[in-house]
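Reviewers of the previous submission asked for a worked example of the structure-prediction workflow described in the proposal, so we include one complete record here. The input consisted solely of the amino acid sequence. No template or homolog information was supplied to the procedure at any stage.
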Amino acid sequence: MNYVNPMKPSERMKLPRQHSIEQDAEIRSHNFKEVSYGVNEALAMQEVQRCLECKDPVCISGCPVSIDIKSFIQYILKKDFVGAVNKIRESNYLPAICGRVCPQESQCEEICTLGKKHEPVAIGKLERFVADYEMQHNLFVPPVIKESREEKVAIVGSGPSGLTCAAELAKLGYKVTVFEALHAVGGVLRYGIPEFRLPRNILDMEAERIKALGVEIITNFLVGRTATIDELFDEWGFKAVFLGTGAGTPTFMGIPGESLSGVYSANEFLTRVNLMKAYDFPNYDTPIKYGKAVAVIGGGNTAMDAVRTSKRLGAEKAYLIYRRSRKEMPAREEEIHHAEEEGIEFVLLTNPIRIVSDVNNWVSGIECQRMELGEPDESGRRKPVPVKGSEYIIPVQTVIEAIGQKPNPIIQQTTQGLDVSKRGTVVVNEVQATSREGIFAGGDLARGGATVILAMRDGKTAASAIHEYLLSKHNGKKQAIPEPFAELTVA
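From that input alone, the workflow returned the following structure tokens.
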């Protein structure tokens, strides 16, 4: 398929970038409906006209899962929207999710040729458009599985890495079973990302797409307790296992007052609200107590999700406390912008040093110290330095810490011979193989906290490696495990 845009490149460069249709900030800050409605067909058709159809589409190299961006845009140009989403699905089996939550601005769009002098093509919005079009018109048709294989593969965890690995292996003909510890599929996609960024019906739809490949999903099954990894091999008959259990154990600052009532980790707070639907109490039996003033500590996407959720629950004051400046925030620019529009109060260059108690051991305030930026640290961002004598107290009744998470240790503790780093992550090599033969791992379990799309890349890489491993076993060869193993870095 090679459709050429008749417009000259000079004409395309004059076209403005199209933007999503969104809820009004004042209205959306009081509901959990999706903030962005994406682009409609008319806007999408205007946006694809901007693509320069480069002979060397560098945008593809910016995509962690190597979507053929040029080709899917050409499908849109000829109004073959299903062809476009199927082209995406060759590389990424979760297009409706990635079109909503991937940081395209720092990946494919960042190196878009058009973006060197103008705004880049809105690749993420186009991905979402074709995925939504297929869903809205009920046009999904599962791909034909050309080969059926007898080997069974277990996927532990149904987050982005696990679902991707499951889909890729199922397309190769393997019998795949996904084990999920919670009562619903999705992992961090369900418990960590709010409804207003990723509606649950979208997540459920993408999960159904994967089940349509023949993947079995078993919920309420905690591997390491319900069954160990060794039991999956020895008693269940699985020939390979992929571990994608994420990083769901919170970390804390270690400041005084963290044991007070009214202090949450972002993980607990968002899980109660998102997975257990505390935002819809009393229709769901999961109330969550919060004050009129809420302080969220952190500057990443999780912190943005927590503070914007607090605002929607009814907080009159929702503070985002971050020790660096806005420029250094790791959160997506779009999420920062949306938070500002919704009235979130950013307290920048400020570091909490103590949580203050009332007479009943409930939070009554958070003591902070002002900071200034010094020299860059290992991350390349300027290191915050305390300003002496600048301490002050912000009156709040709820504090939510969103400063990072680490993996739950259950699988590591119940699986002998599995190398684990000092950070608690499972150590893998370049093809996601662990130190145990037949066991592979990826996503936040191997990286620590990272992005959805990097987790998906790990799942895709692992699926290819598992396929090669099982082929070698079938041919009587022993798995070659490259050395040395090394921790994944958060790219």
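Residues 484-491 have pLDDT under 50 and may be disordered. We consider this example representative of the routine output the project will generate in years two and three.
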